[in-house]
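Write out this protein's structure.
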Amino acid sequence: MPIAYELHGDQLTFGQMASTRMACLEGGDTEQAFLEALRHVRTWKITGQHLELFDAAGILVARFEARHMQ
């Protein structure tokens, strides 16, 4: 089974990911965009409540916000 990700300090790369493309009738475009963004990730950082993922040029490709469940 391939490694899902590799993390070395602030260097981060994602390997091949499993997805549910066949299971959902809607949202396929969102899932495809998400997987495409992950393919470009090379570095990461946490700023406040946000996890930010950047490509090799330092361009932000994804940003996640920590949310507390009530």
